[in-house]
Here is the input.
Amino acid sequence: MREKWKKRVLVTGGAGFLGSHLCDRLVERGDDVICLDNFYTGSKGNIAHLLVFNCLN
Ligand SMILES: NC(=O)c1ccc[n+]([C@@H]2O[C@H](COP(=O)([O-])OP(=O)(O)OC[C@H]3O[C@@H](n4cnc5c(N)ncnc54)[C@H](O)[C@@H]3O)[C@@H](O)[C@H]2O)c1
Here is the structure.
């Protein structure tokens, strides 16, 4: 049932403050999340907990 609503979402700036929280919510609801970030102001540390579970690309 959930699979039907599952989406693949691209989050630009996903390792930043707002983007990382958005990634959290999207992963939480079961979406495939692709995070695009050049780490200019963001940090891998903001999304490290998601990378561990391999639920974010
Ligand atoms: N703990 C806190 O309360 C806290 C912490 C940080 C920031 N803030 C506030 O949040 C706001 C800023 O948050 P935000 O999420 O908009 O900014 P941000 O800088 O945290 O996120 C922007 C992201 O975009 C990325 N980025 C920039 N240019 C890019 C490019 N060309 N290609 C790919 N990625 C790119 C950056 O590396 C960064 O990860 C400010 O108001 C700031 O004061 C609050």
User: Anything to note?
Assistant: The chain has a mean pLDDT of 89. DSSP finds three helices and two strands in the chain. The two ends are 23 Å apart (CA to CA).
